[in-house]
Design brief:
Blueprint lengths: L1 E5 L2 E3 L5 E8 L6 E8 L6 E6 L6 E3 L7 E6 L4 E6 L8 E9 L3 H5 L5 E2 L3 E5 L2
Parallel strand pairs: 2-11
Antiparallel strand pairs: 1-3, 3-8, 4-5, 4-9, 5-6, 7-8, 9-10, 9-11
């Protein structure tokens, strides 16, 4: 089982990035995928999630209206489109998976698998 996050980089405030989480060893039909971020000296935060139970996405309040999560089951990849980025979005972002779970469980930090992160830096 592998989850590989990619797509991070340096972007100016107000800019956009699209992160990808490529998974192998399991199907998106069976696992709920969540995106997390961790900034220096801050606690890990569950950001966005898409559930394998009902396909309904969920986001933490600070990114609602700016971030969109979607899944491409043919490619076994989950995307996180991040718009209107702010300096406080700067963090290492990584994805994680939990079998057939509601998003509130995954975003609470409960998952079976996680991958290496990708750095997102929002700065002018």
């Amino acid at each position: 089982v592998q989850l590989q996050a990619s797509g991070g980089g340096l972007v100016q405030p107000g800019g956009s990035l699209r992160l990808s989480c490529a998974v192998s060893g399991f199907s998106l039909d069976d696992y709920t995928i969540g995106w997390f971020r961790q900034a220096p000296e801050k606690e890990r935060e569950g950001v966005s999630c898409i559930s394998s139970i009902d396909g309904i996405p969920d986001h933490t309040d600070s990114v609602k209206g700016r971030f969109t999560i979607s899944g491409d089951h043919a490619k076994n990849t989950v995307f996180l489109q991040m718009n209107s980025l702010k300096p406080e979005d700067t963090a290492v972002y990584y994805c994680a998976a939990l079998r057939h779970a509601p998003c509130r469980v995954v975003l609470g930090g409960d998952y079976d698998y996680s991958g290496q992160g990708t750095q997102v830096t929002v700065s002018s």
